What we know:
Rossmann fold, 6 domains, eight-stranded mixed beta sheet, six-stranded parallel beta sheet, globular
Amino acid sequence: MAEWKKLNPAQQEAVEKVYGPLLVLAGPGTGKTQLLSARVAEILQKTDVGARNILCLTFTESGAQNMRDRLRELIGESAYDVTISTYHSFGSDIIKNYSEYFQNITTERSDDLRMERPIDDLTQIQIVESIINSLPFDSPLLSARYFIRHVVSTISDLKQHLITPAKLREIANNNLEQIEIAQSLIDEIVNNNGGISKKKAEKLAQYNALLDGLSKLEGELIEQATSKLSEANDKAISINSPTPLRTWKDEWMPKDENDHFTLTDPDRSLKMLDLANVYDAYEQELRRRAAYDFDDMILRAIDGLKNNDELRYNLQERYQFILLDEFQDTNPSQFELVRRIADHPVHEGKPNIMAVGDDDQAIFAFQGANVGNMQDFLDSFTDVKVINLTDNYRSHKDILHVAHNISEQIEDRLHKKLDNINKVLKSSRTNLPANAEIERQEFGAEASEYSWIADKIAELTSRGVNPSEIAVLAPRHKILENLVPFLRNLEVPISYEKRENILDTEIVKSMRLNAQLLDAIMQNDIPRINEYFPLVLSLPYWQIPAEQIWSVNWQLAKWDESRNWPEIALTKPKLKNAVNFYLMLSASANIEPLELTLDKLTGTLPVENSAGCHYAPLKEFYFDPHRRAENPLKYYEAISHLSVIRAHLRDHQSASDKQLNINDFLDFFVMYESADTPLINSHPIAQSMQAVHLMTAYKAKGLEFDYVFIAQAHDDVWGSASRGDSNKLSLPPNLTNIRYVNSSDDERRRLFFVAITRARHGLFITSHSMKDNGKSNTPLKYLNESEGKSKSLPDKFQSIKSIDIEPKSLARDIETLWQAGQVILPADFRALLADKLKSYQMSPTHLNTFIDMERGGPESFLIQTLLKFPQAPHASGEYGTAVHNTLEWYQNSINGSKKPTINDVLSHYDRELDRRYMSDIDRDQARAKGRASLEKYLVARTEMFKKPAKSEVNFYSEGVVIDDARLSGKIDRLEIDDKSKTVRIADYKTGKPLAKWGSDMKSLKYKQQLYMYKILIEHSSTWRGYNVESARLEFVEPDKNATGSVVEPLYLDFNEKEETELKQLIIAVWNLIQTLNLPDISSYDKSAKGAREFVAYMLHKM
């Protein structure tokens, strides 16, 4: 195999060892992705397993996509048969694909408004806050009411480390018992002798006596304390200093309220007892709501594997080879999920599992990652082979010199516990420049530092360096944002991830203001009506002259205090329509679903009365194509902000027992403010497809650039003095391992190491000596700087350069820095959507939307599908979803050997309908119609439902590709004959039945849908090689115009020519989407005829 020959000996060894457990230590740039792909190819070539028997798990969706792309290059279409997934997606897939083992769990999120799904962060906070507020007045945890978020975070930490409420309670009780047991020893050695002696010899004798005494006592807490004391004692001896012992004392032997030393703080364990009760009550509340939080996805999959032998054996039989990428980033629950699948008795502790990771790059502890998993891997399996990759194919040897000097400072390194492992990286890339560019620059002021970085980047680009090969890295977004105006002034294109609290953005604040006005009108609160009306009508999208609004204000204040603001405004021609809009909307806002009201406020839906339809101008003002052309970034951000807040509202709705209305919308803002929690929207800003990257070192993980700038190399930014949002709920020392505490020098050294190793041959490290308050910045100690030299750099680059800045230039730079956060950037629309387009998959619905002339065609696709402009689900769609979910439940029950009665089905339908997002009137109508339709349909289709079938089959992970077009979709019902390898498709339809195929828009879309389903099945990893025998539409509702009986299914006779044309259409539309080259459809009729002409045009253009 040609690819195999490209591997170095260590990589070849890892690829060839297909059987048994293998841990690969893969430093930065050592060809990890190449290794993983080659190993899959090797397994397929050297063993008798198929691609579907291989499981690859990684940490991010982008990592999974990169692995699949690489694998496709090696083994072709078989790459789509390999299960490549993130850990959470894999847990979700287990629950979805083996639903009979998991009761009352639904994995759908905001596209489906059922309640049985993950709760949102805000609801978590509300639940925990309610529980804590109900604690007794003397509870040691009652003070946590002031930091609820930290309690929620701690519960998440406990879940990720597989600690249940019962286990936490056991740990806390054991701690309290052991504290009491150890107290007499501590009293005898320390407290009864006036504390720890100040004399060195006596002090060391006391610690030795403690070590000797504690080692004779039993208990987990005592054993951990003894182990840590032994380590501290050894270190104190080696450095001839008692400092390590003092550090141990501060952590493990604090003083109590009586000024006596004790083994750990008993109050912390008492709080854990109360936390166990809060945690327990939280879990009970989730069960009551039939809900679960983010961490539960994997925990429930683990429970399913633990409690169901058949499920476990099925998965163990299927996944005979397992590959784990970025293993240092996993948490204990993720590793436990893998271990359950790998632990097949036939392997005798030696499963075919390979984990690839690098403990030096373990930087995601704040997300729950536990680098200790790498040691656990060695402990979990028998005869684990360890292979170390040290050939670096990325960086110049001088860059690796810097990286080595940083990594050598990391104290907790796995290879130190292993034999014959050397992690010194060797530069093996042959096409790098002979000389690296490394500079260490120090400036007087922050503004001067940013100015130099921008000038240097401009110089590099003027030398012909591609801007996309330059990155500026920092640990915080704010540092990067401050650099933006400097680069903007030099017209350097930039790309960065903007993070902002959308509750503070213009468009969201305007929505809140609108809601406040509606609430005031509904409450008939005249003072608030008078306050909010002029504020709302002054919003830019109403485009009402200021003098018109002020004229009403003056009239109200001076001449006509007996009337209210809208009463006067209704006499003004330029204000009348706007005022009427809010008065009409207030009549329905309190009784209709919140999303319908929001749609009317954004102008997506009209407010109707006898005089006609009235639209708010917001959508037209912000989102017409001309605005997109004028200011793509503002257009994109506005849609993004509205989409994010709508998604959070839907998540919040899913955890609520009632339908949300406009008052709940206002409460939503108050709850976020009360919880001191921002509602962050992270979205890319890209001025060009070739732009300089401004990113955090966390985001840069896995990437590489020719030139890297590391900004603000200070101790309080990258080093030990940096501070994060530390958790205020203190843990006993034997539980601190579950939490990222943001105080480990090793954590920060690893982050700095990751930043340095992104560079191929250019590295610029900058800092400034003075803070804005006049205090000095402390240099980053990892660089080992003194006497004007940075000794962690190679000898020829050690000199710290200082540049004198002219006062005039400094003043200019400070003025530029003040512009940070206020700069309006021009942007390239396709660059803004690059990430979306990269991961986009086309579904039948998307294709139909694109060609539907009646509903806007490509422009509608862009706004509704690609940008996901928020819009309330239609009542007809919610009704259809309730029917589909009920039929899915019915078929799955039959598959599980349960035969629900008609009454069972109707009761289930009622529950489904109650969870839908509808007005009470629509719900009542849907209930009557759905019950009548289902009762007739199930009787008429009794024979059909007797046959086994798969329901709601999702093709998202099936790897269906036509040319370059990635396809997905969900099919209602598949009737599969594995013996003959045939499939029959059934698609449920609610609404008016179709008697025959015609030339109307509905027929055209239904046909395309069924053809695309055929393509999905026959090109999927699961059913590749199967033949779609037939496809039909199943009409659930009876024929209203004839006998009222159930309509016979409408079959589609597949035609090879039509299928070929559809594939060509898919490719044509895909290319238009990927280039965002949306055709002008103004010349086509808004009809099925126009759609067919548009399709013919696209096929012709191919």
